[in-house]
Amino acid sequence: MEKLNKPTVTICTDRFRSVADTLRRSLGMAGLPVLYVPHPLSGLKADEIEAKADAVAEQIIEALAGKESAPDANGTAAPEGAKQAPEKMTLPDSAEQVYEEYLRRGWTDGLPILPPTVEAVERMIRACGMDPQRVVASIPPLWGEGTIEKIAVNAVMAGCLPQYLPVIVTAVAAMADESFNLTFSQATTHPACPLLIVNGPAAQTLSINGASGAFGSYHRANGTIGRAIRLILLNIGGAIPGEKDMATQGQPSQFSFCIAENEAANPWEPLHVERGLAPQESGVTVVTVENPHNINDSGSTSAEELLTTISGSITSIGSNNFFGQGGNPILALSPEHAETIARDGWSKSEVKTYLFEHARVPLRCLTEFNRKRFFPGLPVTAEIPVVKEADDLIVIVVGGPGRHSSYLPSSAGTWGVTRPLQPGR
């Protein structure tokens, strides 16, 4: 990392100390002065902000003058680094006791696991013919090395079949892409988390559900592949809720978030083809998004009527896309909604353009403070689109019978990444 040429001090609230200290060390900036002040900083009145600033002003000046690193507001020492799990350990034969020990050590998502025995991990790696010591990615915020072996350990814990491993490895590699911005999604207060979308022959071969209940429970491939990703982000990346993962409320999809696109019911080209892969290829797309928000429209009989409903459904002034003006939110159309739109001759590109032009939030809906902060210089009569560019919106077809679609807002500053499936052999 490029060295800072000017005196610098980072100001952080004490509730985010663990994240700041971990990133400071992992990015090779352990000597960077960090001033920890009492939480919160946002949502305060002017006099409250001034009082907090006055309390730390002298420490900021000293830090900028090159003196000792500024202590936090309480004068306590920086926390120790996270303890790394041993490569191998001996535990009782009881699966229940193994689960209890993993809970105690913070190595699970709270749900029961399958014990990652040496034999089970080796069997998974051997079935896919992968080099166990190959590093797929370094996973923030701890920047733990995501080797094939460590990924397989978490896949075994999640209950995956060996044939699922290439999908998981491909997803981990995709999340390491700089544009995906995994560091942000691991540590942000926003509840969004990575969603896996699998396309191509692998979705059918592995029985990854893209039809009825695709975002829900029941299907082993969806549930265990998605869960394996979460365990990897937790155990290798260190995204422990309330310590490194600072999502204010979190969301249920942080247990598991994996679907296939319903290509058989898709009247347009599937997502992986739209994003540059061949139809006969299998692809894995990762996007950091919120839980699905239902869009119910059982009455519209034309594309424009239906898209009018959708336009009104995706314009939320609480959306990160709206305030951040970036990212790839997802419109997951049900097959019946997609069929209605395509029957009227609309292409997927035309759907995106229509929503870009019509799904807009009037600035008058915002407070004066937020108008000035996020949209300075624009008149109150202006209308803001939910995406920066029409093509930023991802449109897929998911689900079974019924006229329910969904919208998945994304985090700002994170972009979806699509990779061809890495074969096991």
Distance between the termini: 35 Å
What is the 3D form?
Answer: flat
H and E string? EHEHHHEEHHHEHHEHEEHHEHHEHEEEE
Low-confidence residue ranges: 68-83
Sheet of most strands: 4 strands, mixed
Alpha-beta classification: alpha/beta
Number of strands: 14
The rounded Rg comes to: 23 Å
Helix content: 25-40%
State the strand order across the main sheet: 6-5-7-14
Strand proportion, as a percent range, falls in 5-15%
Mean of the pLDDT scores? 85
**How many independent structural domains?**
3
Number of helices: 15
How does this model look, in words?
The chain has 425 residues and is an alpha/beta fold. It has 3 domains: 1-81, no CATH class; 90-289 and 414-425, no CATH class; 291-409, no CATH class. Helices cover 35% and strands 14% of the residues. It is built from 15 helices and 14 strands. It has helices spanning 17-26, 46-64, 95-105, 118-128, 148-158, 165-175, 182-187, 201-205, 220-235, 271-274, 303-313, 320-324, 335-343, 348-358, 368-374; strands at 10-13, 34-37, 135-139, 144-147, 193-199, 258-260, 283-289, 293-296, 330-333, 360-362, 383-385, 394-397, 404-408, 417-420. The strands form 5 sheets. It has a 4-stranded mixed β-sheet with strand order 6-5-7-14. The radius of gyration is 23 Å and the shape is flat. The protein starts with 9 loop residues before the first strand and ends in a 5-residue tail after the last strand. The relative contact order is 0.12.
